Amino acid sequence: MRIALAATCIADAMFPQAPRAVVTLLERLGHEVVFPPGQACCGQMHVNTGYLADAVPVVRNHVRTFAPVADGEWDAVVVPSGSCTGSIRHQQRMVLERAGLDAEARTASAVAGRTYELSELLVDVLGVTDVGAWFPHRVTYHPTCHSLRMLGVGDRPERLLRAVDDLELVPLEQAEGCCGFGGTFSLKNADTSAAMLQDKVGHVLDTGAEVLTAGDWSCLMHIGGGLTRTASGVRPMHLAEILVSTREAPVVPGAADGRQEVAR
Amino acid sequence: MSTFLGMPDAGAPATVSGVGRPDDPLHWGATFPDAARTALADEQLRRNLGNATSTIRAKRARVVGEVPDWEALRDAGSALKTDVMTRLPELLEELERNVTARGGVVHWARDAAEANRIVAGIVRAKETDEVVKVKSMATQEIGLNEALAEEGVAAVETDLAELIVQLADDMPSHILVPAIHRNRTEIRDIFLERMADAPPDLTDVPRELAMAARAHLRRKFLSAKVAVSGANFAVADTGTLAVVESEGNGRMCLTLPETLVTVMGIEKLVPTFDDLEVFLQLLPRSSTGERMNPYTSLWTGVTPGDGPQEFHLVLLDNGRTKVLADEAGRSALHCIRCSACLNVCPVYERVGGHAYGSVYPGPIGAILTPQLTGEKSDLPYASTLCGACYQVCPVKIDIPSILVELRAREVELSGAAPDTADRVWQAAMKAASYAMADGGRFRRAARLPRALRAIARHGVIRRLPFPGSLWTRSRDLPEPPRQTFHDWWAARERRAGTRQEGER
Amino acid sequence: MSDARTEVLARVREALGRGTDAAPAPAVVPRGYRPAGEHAPGSEPVLELLVDRLVDYRAHVHRVAGAEVADVVARLVEEVRTVAAADADDSHRAAARPAPGSVVVPDGLDRAWLAGLSGDDVRADARDEPLTATELDGACAVVTAARVAVAETGTIVLDAEPDQGRRAISLVPDVHVCVVRTDQVVQTVPEAVRLLGEHPGRPQTWISGPSATSDIELDRVEGVHGPRTLHVLLVS
Lengths: 264, 504, 236
What we know:
heterotrimer, A: alpha/beta, Rossmann fold, 4-stranded parallel sheet, 8 strands, B: alpha/beta, 6-stranded parallel sheet, 4-stranded mixed sheet, 12 strands, 11% strand, elongated, disordered N terminus
């Protein structure tokens, strides 16, 4: 398959190891990965903060960049983020329609119809749960609200993790509870956000896991930012960063601050 | 909380006096972020709320899980409420006809003041100075008790939690469990301080507290001439009203006094009697987490020889038509006041109801309150958009999407008259919009965080100046990478190109 | 009619973007939910389910044959009286209970069910000859029939017909003995609503266990204002 990667703005700028892992992983599974360089952001931050007019050029850029998938140039678009996938699927069309851009809104729908969050792509589109990974560590999984409730990815990420050799998956207490990030919520309601974070960090520490994983670096950045204050050594890692790890090219949690080159 | 200055009960234990009764039950107190900060500092409150909400959540999940057709019931409930809104004028007229035909009197009220005047007029005509009340959100919303007090009429709340709230001069903090913010010791102190006939040796055992309230209220039930209630449902095609409750105080009020006045929002309709089969399944399981609440009363106008022989129904607008006018936000009127969204909300769970500054707190309050008032509000931002509310809503109100719509409205309102914070946000969003609308611009902008590597220690940034401090006050920022993904990909493409050229 | 009426209705129409044109047709509502249970009314699985739910609410259930009703009613009333007498020794309760012995019944109740009680213990209540609230408060128990019961939710519905009486009589006395025939027990809520919908104008009281509150730290306390004890006689 020819798969276009939407890296997401936050991972592109702050956590490039995740989209790099997606590239390596998909290539390892025999697929071709394309990175359309015109991409920037899906517009979610603007939409969820209420700045719908300012969201329009951002959404248009995303739709324009990924429109070729609607024409069959690529087979699918993969996004290593549940919330960005959710925004693409549930918000982009609305934003364009409200701006009176009906033709682009239709394109947005078509693009969204072929856009998948990473675990959806692997399990539903590519039909794999065992990606041949090896990760000999104790891991706990935070399902993230938008993956869980907006997309309904269900247990796909956990199925992928359970198939990883030597990975010990430990359950997270109150896993479905929000970590308190919520995009600009973490700034507009910083105190409430911090209180939610405190509880989530506590539950993560209770697991005794070495690694906290999720399908979304935004939530991981939030929880990770709380974890480093506890000096616990629990490392946040994107699902892709675990799935890319093999016996031949193991990914070591925390090596070089988690910024290790995982792809050549 | 301090009680030594200007409080009416200077000698009372510090815990007794509540937040006071506001002038506007839909808009009071500090801003949400400030009120939340105060609430978060109250460890006892957080424990009370945490225990309570997790208990109800578990109960709800258990009894919903045993209903095989739950999703079909939700679909039906949602469709019925949509139908009600579409045909609201006709259904209201049908209800009015049927209630009137059965001996009831129907009144219409444009706003809170008009509704209060109508109720006060009815009570005055009965020459009584005391009415008993069933817990009702509509009468909380219009501040009926305060309005009656001005007329010299004491409105006695008879739901245990509402009684606690009333005695403490407090505001409800939950739709279903209004005194959820109070623990048993506080409740005992409130009773001892404010309930004249409380046994002096009262302990804080819930059973004893409940029995003290029973004894206190029974005398009032047996002598009351007028009762005031809300309504959970009103059936258009029969004129039947329904009140769903647990304690029996509702039955007392609906049955014993000679006169009953019911105040009901115009959205509370269901089209036909049979439709109750949907809502009487959805509401109790979503609300108290019971298969069925202990008591549900249904009555149609006046039944000669049984119950009140005079029945008044007050149909209340008070901003509901404003909500109805907004197509995107309209479905907030579908709410059946179960409070399931409060119990699953991670924000509500931590800050409690008072932080919302409205009788309607939690996720539903965050979409209903600003629409009812039409005022600028910070409530649409009081959510992480985690979606837990939508998942449990028995009538499938898409609260997260409506929150986003209302945020857009807030941005429009603040665009017209921005304050300093608004200007900062507007500038930031404009700048981000410019940077993120083009791949080239984004690629350059994405390199900017790299500058922060200079202040990173051990892979993290511990402290940033404002507004970054809003983040770093409670969490670290990871050290930005040396190379963005865009740049990494470009380099990889270059390497691949060079390799290909070398192979040629 | 009043100005408010005209104005509210006008606002509603305006909000909906409608003039005074005719109403849209009722929407077709998806009713994919169960209109009835898989078990027939009165069948053994339905009865077992009802008993289970009632016990869960801490109601007292007695499964009896028709001929035994009078004996069980008499025994229950005797028990209640013993408790009431003990209460009466408690000085402040004695004042509130001037007649701890009387049992209230609706005047249309099957008199055979009361055969075990002595006549002067029983006070009949009727719409045209009602007991006062204070008299009801002085009674130790009430015995009624029922209209329908819902097994899945453990609910008994009274619709104020002569064998069930005015709503107040099953509310004020502290003990409610409710006689339900097994053929009145349906499995699901929709079955009961359809049945009750035949006479929607009758005042209805849906009872699911004794009165309860969870208003204090969500700690459930049974018996606040309604009867604190509910006995259900399930009669085959």
